[in-house]
Amino acid sequence: MSRQQYGEKFRQVQAYLHSGDCYQVNLAQRFQASYVGDEWQAFRQLNAVNRAPFSAFIRLDEGAILSLSPERFIQLRQGEIQTRPIKGTLPRLDSPLADAQQAEKLANSPKDRAENLMIVDLMRNDIGRVAVPGSVRVPELFVVEPFPAVHHLVSTITARLPMTLHASDLLRAAFPGGSITGAPKVRAMEIIDELEPQRRNAWCGSIGYLSYCGNMDTSITIRTLTAWQGQLYCSAGGGIVADSEEAAEYQETFDKVNRILQQLEN
């Protein structure tokens, strides 16, 4: 997507926002390049540097999925539910003092806090559809977490799943994650489908496990590359709200993938 094309999509999202159609839309663009080499070795190199807590590798018939996700979608352990949506991002800076100020800036950003709160409310609603009534809690709100390339604003929502329900019921109620769609979720997904020129495929889906005893943990597949038939695909996006700035949102998509792509070049 060219800079001009992104601007056109951004303005279309803004029109929907100002008309009251939705409150937030996660608009993304996809990057593509040819590659040579072994996907597993590339993943090992990326994983060693990025230290993402939800990294995963899946071998495909004609390629692979290399996920370096920092984001938990839903965990279910002994009936306890936890989701940790990420919404709000600023790049890391070289100077320790400037980097600390950058983290403080993110923590106090009215725009990023508003975006984050919208998704917290959305996830509370999604989980609340299947959780024990009155069990939904928000123990952490607007926590800045540093990663090698960026700072993220993260919140935590917890609840309890009734013994009569299964992890699959929880997934059906909450998938896909609100942090990579928008709010209201269904309308945001319709707008994404209308405006984004490519299907998202593995990106912004989920990778995880479901154990025999009913425990589950899943990621949201951001920072995720798809290698397919000699082509490498990598997408990045951000939540757009009414007061978002086009240039800043466009730059954020590069901030999220620059470090990964530079490592592959090396």
UniProtKB/TrEMBL annotation:
- Protein name as catalogued: Para-aminobenzoate synthase component I
Give the gene that encodes this protein. Answer: pabB_3
Alphabetically ordered keywords of this record: Aminotransferase, Transferase
* Organism of this sequence: Klebsiella pneumoniae
Q: Some GO term, biological process aspect, for this entry: which one? A: L-tryptophan biosynthetic process
Q: What class of enzyme is it?
A: transferase
An example Gene Ontology molecular-function term:
4-amino-4-deoxychorismate synthase activity
The protein's matches in InterPro entries, at most eight in alphabetical order, are given as: ADC_synth_comp_1 (IPR005802), ADC_synthase (IPR005801), Anth_synth_I-like (IPR019999), Chorismate_C (IPR015890)
Q: Pfam families given for it? A: Chorismate_bind (PF00425)
Q: What is its EC number?
A: 2.6.1.85
Asked if the record carries the keyword Transferase, the reply is: yes
Sequence ranges assigned to domain Chorismate-utilising enzyme C-terminal in this UniProt record: 3-256
